[in-house]
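Quick start: load a record and inspect it. Here is 2-methylcitrate dehydratase:
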Amino acid sequence: MIDHTVRTHRSAEDFPYEEHLAYKIARVAADPVAVPAETTEMIINRIIDNASVAAASLTRRPVTVARRQAQAHPVEGKGATVFGTHGLFSAEWAAWANGTAVRELDFHDTFLAEEYSHPGDNIPAILAAAQTSGATGADLVRGIATGYEIQVDLVRGMSLHKHKIDHVAHLGPSAAAGIGTLLHLDVDTIYQAIGQALHTTTATRQSRKGAISSWKAFAPAFAGKMAIEAIDRTMRGEGAPAPIWEGEDGVIAWLLDGPDASYTIPLPAEGEPKHAILDTFTKEHSAEYQAQAIIDLARRMREQIDDFSQIDSIVLHTSHHTHYVIGTGANDPQKMDPHASRETLDHSIMYIFAVALEDGTWHHERSYAPERANRPETVELWHKISTVEDPAWTKRYLSTDPDEKAFGGRAVITLKDGTEIVDEIALADAHPGGARPFAREQYIAKFRELAEGIIDDAEQDRFLEAAQNVENLTNLTELNFTVSEDVLHRAPETPEGLL
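Running the structure step on this input writes:
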């Protein structure tokens, strides 16, 4: 890996475009280096993982709206598939629909460093472009490897949340780079697409603050849609604002740390294989990633408590991110509100710990049901929980040493008689370093569980066979899954839109 220093440059400075971060990323994307076998194996796992969570969310309202929007853009002969349906649709709208389905339940993969990310969000846009272009499975694998590599590398070196910019600002460029790899585009074309994709996908983090709405699911899908459109425009000869990160009025100068700041972004050297996907991790539970280990901790600690009504307080000692984004440090009263949206409850570690402690399990639907959130004893317990930042956990969260890096915390449960029950966990059970790491068997089991009652058994078998043979596929529509009209009829009625 090569560390690249990225800073603002005045317009009058001599700053050749070959030195722009977008150009350096484009060179990585255009590098014809082979994809390592272990990277390919993990890409297969994540294709399966994305389909799992998309199936589980298929009839939810935001996913239904996105699907119906895509269905308003059918095409013949050259297009992309939409989960659950037959036929072909415009690539950018297929990416929109499938990206929303993948993201809706907050149940797919994650990478955390200076910034936060869900690198699996790259797959819907890259797959839609692959299907539309008639690319092969081997091309798709190369594109996905790039998408993961670029997003992870940006996340390692450049914080967005510090300035309340939503993390999908790293996704637009990574998806554009991945599509560039997929299509074997030249460096200059990819460079322009990266600039356009970044320029159109910067937004504030209000989408993840206060009353969190369904836009949280739409946001990465929008970034993927913009990446496809950016690629299309630049293939037709159009350009982008430049230098997009380093310009005098660019992202660093006005959206991030300012004109005097610099960042270090690691990127693979020419000819260096792309391994970044191996540093990412998926979820066993449908919740914000920082909640994964805490759910496992709650399930373990409940065995030491005979009567939950005797709990006086619970304090979770954890990282800066967990405390300030999904803990009481966020100062969001909605995170303590039993009438809050599912999206908000998903970002309340207090709610999540209370339910996991009481139930000893976590379910992507039942654990968020309104009747579950409004259970009086749960509300009482929930309101006894607070979080504090512990510098030691923050240090582990930000560590670049894989043996030290962790996303857990320590729980102190104080009973009314003064007894303290204390336990801690560093990694979620499903993490590669956890108690029960996810491998192919677990990805398939997750797919089977979430697809049950939605995708019939024969279609499940067909999809899994295609996904595991992705390198040899010549027809990438095989990576779609379809469901019966009876399943689609479970989706809610939604008002007509404009399109």
